[in-house]
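Request: How about a record?
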Amino acid sequence: MSVVVIGLNHRTMPLDLFERLTFDGARVPKALAALQACDHVTEAVLVSTCNRTEAYIVAERFHAAYQEVRDALADLAHVAPEDFADHLYVHYDDDAVRHLFRVTAGVDSDVLGDTEVQGQVRDAWKVAVDEGAVGPVLNLLFRHAVETGKRARSDTGIARGTASVSHAAVEMAGEHLGSVTGRTVLVIGVGSMGRSMATALRGAGAGRVLVANRTPARARALADEVDGEVVALAQLPDALAECDVLLTSTGATSVIIDHTELEPALVRRGDDPLLVVDVAVPRDVDPAVGRLPGVTLLDIDDLRRFAQAGVDGRRREIAAVDALVDEEAERYRREVSARAAAPLVAALHSRAEDVRQSELARYAARLDGLDDRQRAAVDGLTKALLAKVLHEPTVKLKTLAGTPTGDRLAEALRHLYDLNDLDG
């Protein structure tokens, strides 16, 4: 079996097509169920963010599993496989491991060193666990990935400065406005991205932070956190008429603001310009809004270009992160190999214990005169002798597992101790 990642992102395909192949939180369980239903997939985690949609699977047969996953994504997104198949990228085994570790470390994000992607990977793993979609292989892989992300941010400077999509969005808005200090800002959406944007706005000195969401209680909770104000969805026209900038990032599957909703607000605004920053994928704002007089519309592509301008310092950290990723990938490989050696180690110890018990039974008559304390001493002594004799072979089996030397050693032990029927 192989670990395989099958993915796509808005850098590999047109944004409007990519939007159709993203999965918000509510759709992920259904997508995981579809992946689990594939005949050649035994485990699955789906990482779907504004930057990427990636299916991490354990595949029994690579080519068959690839086709099944591609077709499952097509069915879920109502897109013909041939419309996006050429945009897919695939990594397997060591390359898949290294890819996930680099993603979690933030070196494969639109904002280099993205501090939010580690949480997104962790959340995707948790959802897959809750849905019963993962087993020992992906559990081990994702645990190592999250640990790699933590090390990358603590041991290197990859996250120094602006290193998240939400903070970059606020900085981009500030650059276009001159500053967000004292400005009235409307935030739509209170997920992790919306929450981070609202927090960043307050830190940047925004005057009023208006918060809107389809769930009023969640809007109230975020507004309380940032000393903001709640705006009911029915009051959006009023809020759009008075705000300087709109930042939106919801999980909606279609646009929530089109030009017909904005036009009345623009009439009330007069000559006051409006900046709209839409970092949702799929987009929350109809692209036609950008053609309205007085409106500047920025989306995820604009954010990517903006973020690239400030990454020179963090780019110098890529080599250090890649070295760390290589180190963590090797640590992961050793643990996988050690786990693979576990059945043989258990078989060796079981065979040795059988011999010990057999010998104790053979000498039972001679030990008849011993009391309970003496019998316990004999039992303990023979167990200790076995443990010492087996210690070195056990360590070498685990340490060298997965290497040519380890394979030769394992085969020799199977042959010498007739373990072929015990370790499978």
